[in-house]
Write a structure and sequence with these properties.
Chain A is an all-alpha fold. Chain A has one domain: Up-down Bundle (Ferritin). Helices cover 65% and strands 0% of the residues of chain A. Chain B is of the alpha/beta class. Chain B folds into 2 domains: 4-78, GMP Synthetase, Chain A, domain 3; 100-159, no CATH class. Chain B is 25% helix and 23% strand. The interface between A and B is medium-sized, with 31 and 25 residues.
Chain lengths: 252, 162
């Protein structure tokens, strides 16, 4: 693999993770538990869509085959997508969406803080921009985890059940492959293993506050780094891509 | 031959699509202008928020304005670095926001209090009371939070400090 191919795949992975998470979160638009939360998740989804656009634009430019960010988003099949499995998991109830978001926000803030130091100026620029937004997202999701965890028996149970369902997909966030190895050597990619201790510390503090218990002995689900996904991705893509595929020459 | 200053004053005529009381130049999203000969121009723009849906509108407005004013080729270059900050809003722009009913950012990002969530007390743009409370971090647009005044009881938008 050349370093250009690695950079294409890396930008694609980050862009895909963002676009699928944003698509999932936007399913709450018009369905939030109350107006302010409806607006909050829609706003968060919008920030993440913006990040996806910038990252996929850069992936397309790096690939150099004349594809646009829209073509990358709308005209690839599930096996060509590299988004983290956790982002494609169903929203479930609000508590499950929130705990998934808290786990991802905590990872993303640490990740993009490191990526902002990348030798690749474009990735560093996108990362520096994202840090400001993720700071707000994380404050929001952490506050709700705390509230659900210390609310009623019902809210706590829903939060814990959500965590149990999402937990097997968390480990994959820290997985690295040849792409990471090549780009870490060049000072472009983030060494994910270095992020883990702090992430665990922060998440353990959050769990302690919210009385949550991390499930033990669960199998770590993985595959997205190689384009292997859970069944849910294809359904998301069907919904997201059907219009552009039906009218491929349409101009918006 | 147009000068950079001319172009900036020309672009100052374009209102922000969401908050029409301030111009896109006052908002700070126009970072640079590069003029090549008589007919070709490049405008460097940075988004306020990554996903701000008004960015496309701003791009279209800039392009239209420059084509109407004698340029043949207008290139819009979207950059992410340095990231947009509310520190770039002028004092005059902040005053205009307040008159429009949107509380302007109360602090500079340099004190980093926004990172810890300890935002300063926001002043109600209507009755100027400091007895206000945040209803939601996320408001009617990406750049605003929703607040309520405990004295005049009106809800209002706060331009988030980032």
């Amino acid at each position: 693999m050349t370093s250009k191919e690695a950079l294409f795949n890396y930008s694609l992975r980050l862009g895909d993770t963002s676009v699928i998470l944003a698509q999932r979160l936007s399913e709450w638009t018009g369905h939030g538990p109350f107006l302010e939360e409806d607006l909050a998740l829609t706003n968060i989804a919008l920030d993440i869509f913006g990040r996806a656009k910038a990252l996929l634009e850069y992936a397309a430019k790096t690939e150099g085959k004349g594809r646009t960010e829209d073509e990358l988003a709308f005209f690839r099949n599930d096996r060509e997508y590299f988004n983290a499995l956790i982002t494609e998991q169903p929203n479930g109830d609000y508590a499950k969406t929130i705990i998934r978001q808290a786990l991802i926000d905590c990872f993303d803030l640490a990740f993009y803080t490191e990526l902002a130091k990348s030798k690749d100026e474009t990735l560093a620029g996108i990362a520096a921009k994202s840090i400001k937004e993720i700071t707000y997202h994380k404050r929001h999701s952490f506050a709700w985890v705390n509230r659900f965890g210390n609310g009623t028996e019902e809210s706590f149970n829903r939060l814990q059940n959500g965590l149990n369902e999402i937990w097997p997909f968390v480990g994959e966030l820290f997985e690295m492959n040849e792409v990471d190895a090549i780009l870490i050597k060049e000072g472009i990619a983030v060494d994910l293993s270095a992020l883990k201790p702090n992430w665990e510390k922060e998440i353990n503090q959050l769990f302690a506050k919210a009385n949550l218990v991390a499930p033990e002995g669960t199998y770590v689900q993985h595959g997205s780094r190689n384009g292997l996904h859970t069944e849910y991705l294809s359904y998301i893509l069907a919904e997201m891509q059907s219009i552009p595929r039906m009218h491929p020459t349409a101009k918006w | 031959m147009q000068t950079k200053e001319n172009i900036f004053s020309l672009l100052s005529e374009i209102p922000d699509p969401e908050i029409p009381v301030i111009s896109i130049v006052e908002l700070g999203v126009i970072r640079d202008v590069k003029i090549f000969g008589d007919k070709t121009i490049e405008v460097v723009i940075t988004p306020t928020y990554s996903g701000c849906p008004a960015m496309k509108q701003m791009e279209d407005d800039v392009r239209k304005k420059l084509l109407e004013n004698g340029f043949d080729a207008v290139k819009i270059n979207m950059v992410y670095h340095p990231a947009w900050t509310t520190d770039w809003l002028s004092e005059e722009a902040k005053l205009k926001l307040q008159k429009y009913g949107i509380a302007p950012p109360e602090e500079s990002t340099s004190d980093k209090s926004f990172l810890t969530g300890k935002t300063k007390q926001v002043t109600c743009p209507r009755c100027k009371s400091k007895n206000t409370v945040m209803v939601s971090q996320f408001g009617s647009t990406a750049c605003k939070a929703l607040y309520k005044c405990n004295d005049c009881l009106e809800a209002f938008d706060y331009f988030k400090c980032i």
